[in-house]
């Protein structure tokens, strides 16, 4: 077993003075995640504002790792700009750890992800990794998934039919737009965002929706759930372990 990198800033903690911003909480967990990065390995890297803090922290130990497999074009660009080599996922059989954020995470490690429209590649890299470490601020911890609009990546011609299926479940679905046009993912597909859901059985929900024709990926991460969550709180980084 390879030893973890242990930089002095691996676990940021609050100093107890004043109010800590959400941005500062994200930076705390980004630094704390370095403790799960093993020397000489290739790291799975997610996407989003919290992951950007992790990428910045990862740059401080870039000479101790081989590089990264990235889940999005945006993360790839940030990694390379900081001098961290990026490998194609097909060049790597298995990753020791995947570090990514979440839009929601419950007390079982099940998550909703995809606010940054990278859910398909995130799920691929998560499935390729032995361990999923979620990094998030405390506002992302929920009892039941569904308050955050659920992202679903779809083939464009199937969008309306998929939306009708969610409406039959009681949800309100709409195609995500950017600059007045449907947002196009890194994979050339569209995103349907669904509100009004209460996902009480994430495993069953993910399995069902994944079988709908035209669905590329649903943003429920239950089969690829987190093993560990580093939660940024005003009192410091709280570590949650899931069976």
Automatic annotation (TrEMBL):
<comment type="pathway">
    <text>Carbohydrate degradation; pentose phosphate pathway; D-ribose 5-phosphate from D-ribulose 5-phosphate (non-oxidative stage): step 1/1.</text>
</comment>
<comment type="similarity">
    <text>Belongs to the ribose 5-phosphate isomerase family.</text>
</comment>
<keyword id="KW-0413">Isomerase</keyword>
<feature type="binding site">
    <location>
        <begin position="100"/>
        <end position="103"/>
    </location>
    <ligand>
        <name>substrate</name>
    </ligand>
</feature>
<dbReference type="GO" id="GO:0004751">
    <property type="term" value="F:ribose-5-phosphate isomerase activity"/>
</dbReference>
<protein>
    <recommendedName>
        <fullName>Ribose-5-phosphate isomerase A</fullName>
        <ecNumber>5.3.1.6</ecNumber>
    </recommendedName>
</protein>
<comment type="subunit">
    <text>Homodimer.</text>
</comment>
<dbReference type="GO" id="GO:0009052">
    <property type="term" value="P:pentose-phosphate shunt, non-oxidative branch"/>
</dbReference>
<dbReference type="InterPro" id="IPR037171">
    <property type="entry name" value="NagB/RpiA_transferase-like"/>
</dbReference>
<feature type="binding site">
    <location>
        <begin position="47"/>
        <end position="50"/>
    </location>
    <ligand>
        <name>substrate</name>
    </ligand>
</feature>
<dbReference type="InterPro" id="IPR020672">
    <property type="entry name" value="Ribose5P_isomerase_typA_subgr"/>
</dbReference>
<dbReference type="GO" id="GO:0006014">
    <property type="term" value="P:D-ribose metabolic process"/>
</dbReference>
<feature type="binding site">
    <location>
        <begin position="113"/>
        <end position="116"/>
    </location>
    <ligand>
        <name>substrate</name>
    </ligand>
</feature>
<feature type="binding site">
    <location>
        <position position="140"/>
    </location>
    <ligand>
        <name>substrate</name>
    </ligand>
</feature>
<comment type="function">
    <text>Catalyzes the reversible conversion of ribose-5-phosphate to ribulose 5-phosphate.</text>
</comment>
<feature type="active site" description="Proton acceptor">
    <location>
        <position position="122"/>
    </location>
</feature>
<dbReference type="GO" id="GO:0005829">
    <property type="term" value="C:cytosol"/>
</dbReference>
<dbReference type="Pfam" id="PF06026">
    <property type="entry name" value="Rib_5-P_isom_A"/>
</dbReference>
<dbReference type="InterPro" id="IPR004788">
    <property type="entry name" value="Ribose5P_isomerase_type_A"/>
</dbReference>
